[in-house]
Design goal:
binds NADP nicotinamide-adenine-dinucleotide phosphate, Rossmann fold, 9 helices, about 30% helix, 6-stranded parallel β-sheet, 14 strands, alpha/beta, Dihydrodipicolinate Reductase, domain 2, 8-stranded mixed β-sheet
Length: about 350
């Protein structure tokens, strides 16, 4: 029998639409053996939820015969037909929304950053454990088949020899003329700044491409950071981090909103060559190339699946739930806590405190 999740989508916005696209494409392609049904769209406005369903082309055909209901957030938490919730709202709302979803008896995947700090994250993981419900941060990057394959070449086949160094940047130029100060990227009340929005990805790459262990078992490392807070908005738009693992491997990481970052956005260097990752959006590692120092034929990969890339984390969640697991092995709770803890430290050193933390 097919594994099936009945989804409640919380927040009828940008990223929720991209997530839903992948669920519907999965149902159309029928390749995975997993069914994802959008049962409910929870929004501050039912009219907005309806427009969301229309704009994202949810039909009886691609949604397996189901027309979603348009609900308030509270109605979604209480909806007995929903067994999995996807949270796609700005960061400061994640804590209360994950909590309410778990209290409603739902399994949950919540957009990155999971919460605004590690204290909040710990409280949610404690609750998921108590409720025996699945919970995961939606760091989709970790679940791409491209990453699994790249790590096989790097760690099992060791094709570029000993890896010593990673350089990774995720920056994009925000138009400060047209982006209002109330936008979630700028507003300190909405968790604004680069570290929580895109810094999480450069940290993720330093974790998944320089260490073959996760969570509690991770290879020990130290982090140093330099942060420039914007004089107008008071959040970080220019942040640099250095990682040094105790085996000597290092990462040079940067993120920001003042300038566009480079392509390729990653260069991972070993003694016999290097790997480059490129993608218009560095969060989705859809394309990479391994180049060899001795001139051997490069190895190249491109994800041409048609998915945005959210389906990989959604399918991983479905498989975990079907197997009775409440935590995912690729992104266990301790790994989210580790990443959140790094961002806590970077912000603390820079004096970036969100109002919710005061
Ligand atoms: N995985 C990725 O690559 C990726 C990419 C972009 C964003 N994200 C993450 O996804 C989350 C949402 O980002 P987004 O770009 O989708 O945001 P968005 O479009 O600005 O907002 C998403 C939804 O959140 C609710 N919302 C927005 N502003 C709010 C406010 N001030 N108060 C209360 N609710 C508000 C609204 O839902 P309703 O009006 O429908 O209730 C809105 O439709 C963020 O945490 C972000 O980090 C992840």
């Amino acid at each position: 029998m097919a594994i099936k999740l009945n989804w409640g989508i919380l927040g009828a916005g940008n990223i929720s639409g991209q997530f839903v696209h992948d669920l519907l494409l999965n149902n159309t392609l029928k390749e995975s053996g997993i069914e994802h049904v959008v049962v409910s769209i929870g929004s501050s406005s039912k009219a907005k939820a309806k427009v969301f369903a229309e704009e994202n082309k949810i039909t009886l055909e691609n949604n397996l015969g189901v027309t979603p209901v348009f609900e308030s957030y509270d109605e979604l938490y209480a909806n007995p037909n929903v067994n999995a919730v996807y949270i796609g709202t700005p960061h400061p709302y994640h804590k209360e929304q994950v909590e309410a979803s778990l209290k409603g008896g739902k399994h949950v995947i919540c957009e990155k950053p999971f919460t605004i700090n590690s204290k909040e994250a710990q409280e949610l993981f404690d609750l998921a454990k108590k409720k025996n419900l699945f919970l995961m941060e939606a760091v989709w990057t970790r679940f791409f088949p491209s990453i699994k394959l790249l790590r096989k070449y790097l760690y099992e086949d060791k094709v570029i020899g000993d890896i010593h160094r990673l350089k990774c940047d995720f920056s994009f130029k925000v138009d400060f003329e047209t982006t209002p100060t109330t936008h979630r990227l700028r507003d300190i009340k909405l968790g604004g700044g680069a570290i929580l929005d895109v810094g999480i990805y450069v940290i993720t790459y330093a974790r998944i491409l320089l260490d073959d262990k996760v969570g509690k078992n991770h290879t020990p490392f130290e982090v140093k950071s330099l942060v420039t807070l914007d004089p107008v908005d008071g959040v970080d738009y220019n942040t640099n981090l250095l990682f040094k693992y105790n085996n000597g491997k290092q990462a040079v990481l940067s993120c920001g909103f003042y300038v566009d970052g480079p392509q390729p956005f990653i260069r991972l260097e070993g003694t016999k060559g290097y790997a480059n990752l490129s993608s218009p959006n560095p969060a989705c590692p859809k394309q990479w190339k391994i180049t060899f120092a001795d001139g051997s034929k490069p190895i190249e990969y491109e994800d041409k699946s048609g998915y945005n890339g959210f389906i990989y984390e959604a399918n991983a969640m479905a498989e975990d739930i079907a197997a009775g697991r409440i935590e995912n092995a690729i992104l266990p709770w301790d790994e989210t806590l580790l990443t959140m803890g790094i961002m806590d430290d970077v912000r603390k050193e820079a004096g970036l405190v969100y109002p919710q933390e005061k």
